[in-house]
Design goal:
This protein is 44% helix and 19% strand. The protein is of the alpha+beta class and 582 residues long. A 6-stranded mixed β-sheet has the order 11-12-13-14-15-16, with helices on both faces. The longest helix has 80 residues. The termini are far apart. The N terminus is likely disordered.
Length: 582
């Protein structure tokens, strides 16, 4: 009789009984089991004189094989885990190296790209994707049955010899034929009416479906028209923006330059936060760029697998290497921003760019985070465009362009930007409105000089407010310098204008205009404006030619006042008398 046994996974076996002859020539019954371990590729035949002994031998052998197999599998599992960890370490190391390479190539990677705005890419050419309403299918109407024809043979009386002999039988045959016709007619009539009603309901339902369909089509057409109208408006806006840009509109130039930097593809740790302004008179683009702090830079040098701890260990760059990477990257980023804006300037709107690099850092002296400008440069387009940026040393190039920054940028040493506006000027004083006191009898040449300065501030604030401008009055000077300063409200943008107000009754000479020009230079302003209730001499008008100065006389002042909804007068003779009596 054959034996049987269940084995662990990876084992197969079978049992049999053999008759073996001993030395005495008698038959001896022996049990035999052949077993195989597929994983180990080991095979063995086990025999015993008794079934229990055989089973025990098989069990012992199977346990040995299982133990050996489990050891092999555990070793393989550990080796697989180790290999996976080593591969993960290599992958992370490669990823870290790619991040560093991306940072190191931050300048050269931009040189092969066309940074001009693709106007067509800005357009919305997408189609209206909402599915068109599905028209309901025509209803399948039931076929109406035909009414029976009374003249058909099946409805005729059945006459025979007897009906010919007996009139009563004939009459019965006639009545039976009529009843048969009537029954068939009534059945068909009922069916006809049922199917007619059903068809009417189907037609009515289909008509409602058609009405719903037509309404859905109407709504769909409305939505498509609205989509197309919005798309056309959007594209018209792009065309208008393009047209205004090519016509040197200041706001459009600012928007265009903003888009150039926004489209720039940079490493993720650079957030592309910046502010832009443009001076159409000097054709200088002013950029204040927020630089990434050193903590944001990729700092992993290598990832290793530590077998003894069965863990991944990240190795970091030391501070010296990171600070060098920080400095070099800042110089490259500054040159890249300049390159992208100059390269994208297809209308030659930019004669120069003034670029300030700002950083938000933790001031360890105060424990507070602060914004500081650590690098600043102003460069002309004609000078920058002759540089071969592929072969330059970024820091040397920056210094050669007369850029300003500490020798070690990572030290976060604040500097004064080349072009900026100081909103915290201590000379600024609280302002008050004057126009609400004016009427057409008010003589501007005779009002108190403090009121006149605040009037000028109020008028120019209204003039500049549409562009986000702001005007502040300085401390009382009685013509001793700056009376008001106009500037953009953003603290890190340029566009500083110096305004002087002269409540004069006599002609303003050239000396006052020269003084204004000197003030503009000393203040680092982009323009100076002189306003008077009187007028200027010929020398004064001659002096302002080709200079960033504007002269407004009494007539200009009254026009500006009327432009903003106010009226007054200027009577110099009356003012001389009134002022003399004070």
């Amino acid at each position: 009789m054959a034996g049987s046994r269940s084995f662990d996974k990876g084992l197969i076996g079978y049992g049999k009984v053999d008759n073996v002859w001993n030395v005495n020539g008698t038959k001896v019954l022996r049990y035999q089991q052949e077993i195989l371990h597929e994983g180990l590729k080991e095979h063995k035949v086990i025999s015993a004189p008794e079934r229990d002994i055989l089973n025990n031998k098989v069990r012992v052998q199977v346990e040995k094989w299982n133990e050996k197999w489990n050891e092999i599998q555990e070793k393989k599992r550990i080796e697989d885990l180790k290999k996976a960890s080593v591969d993960e370490a290599l992958r992370k190391t490669k990823e870290a190296e790619e991040k560093i390479s991306e940072v190191e190539d931050i300048l050269v990677s931009s040189l092969e790209i066309d940074h001009t705005i693709d106007w067509e890419a800005l357009m919305d050419r997408s189609e209206f994707k909402e599915p068109y309403p599905l028209k309901p299918s025509e209803p399948v109407l039931a076929v109406l049955p035909a009414y029976p024809d009374k003249n058909d043979s099946e409805f005729q009386p059945k006459f025979n010899i007897l009906t010919g002999l007996f009139k009563s039988l004939k009459n019965k045959a006639i009545i039976k034929a009529e009843q048969n016709y009537k029954l068939v007619y009534e059945d068909i009539d009922t069916l006809y009416k049922e199917k007619t009603l059903c068809n009417s309901q189907l037609i009515e339902q289909h008509q409602k479906s058609l009405e719903e369909y037509e309404f859905k089509v109407y709504e769909w057409n409305d939505r498509e028209a609205e989509y197309i109208n919005k798309q056309n408006d959007f594209n018209a806006g792009i065309e208008n923006f393009k047209s205004k840009y090519y016509n040197n509109d200041t706001e459009s130039i600012i928007k265009y330059c903003d888009m150039v930097l926004s489209d720039s593809i940079l490493p993720d740790f650079i957030n592309k936060k910046f502010d832009i302004d443009y001076n159409p008179e000097t054709k200088i683009l002013i950029i204040d760029y927020m630089l990434p702090e050193i903590e944001a830079y990729p700092n992993i040098k290598e990832v290793k697998y530590v077998a003894s701890k069965n863990e991944l260990n990240e190795l970091y760059f030391n501070n010296t290497v990171l600070e060098k990477l920080f400095d070099t990257t800042i110089y490259k980023l500054i040159l890249r921003v300049l390159y992208e804006e100059f390269q994208a300037d297809v209308i030659n709107a930019l004669d120069a760019i003034s670029l300030n690099g700002w950083i938000n850092f933790l001031n360890k002296a105060t424990g507070n985070r602060e914004d500081a400008c650590i690098i600043s440069i102003q460069v002309k387009k004609e000078v920058f465009n002759i540089i071969d940026l592929k072969n330059v040393d970024p820091k040397a190039c920056f210094k050669n362009l007369k850029g300003i920054g500490s020798s070690k940028l990572a030290g976060i040493t604040p500097i004064q930007p080349i072009l900026t506006l100081n909103k915290n000027d201590k000379r600024f004083v609280e302002s008050y409105n004057v126009t609400n006191k004016l009427d057409d009898s008010t003589n501007l040449a005779a009002i108190p000089w403090e009121d006149f300065e605040h009037l000028i501030r109020e008028l120019f604030e209204k003039e500049f407010s549409s562009n986000g401008g702001e005007v502040k009055v300085t401390q009382a000077s009685r013509d001793g310098g700056v009376d008001a300063v106009a500037f953009d409200p953003d603290p890190i943008r340029g566009g500083k204008l110096v305004i002087q107000a002269k409540r004069y009754t006599n002609t303003v000479g050239v000396s006052a205009v020269r003084d204004l020009y000197g003030t503009v230079m000393n203040e680092g302003a982009t323009k100076g404006i002189l306003v008077t209730t009187a007028d200027y001499g010929p020398d004064a008008y001659e002096f302002v030619k080709n200079k960033p100065l504007t002269l407004l006389n009494g007539g200009n002042l009254l026009h500006l006042l009327e432009k903003h909804g106010h009226k007054a007068k200027i009577d110099l003779k009356e003012a001389k008398i009134l002022n003399a009596s004070i």
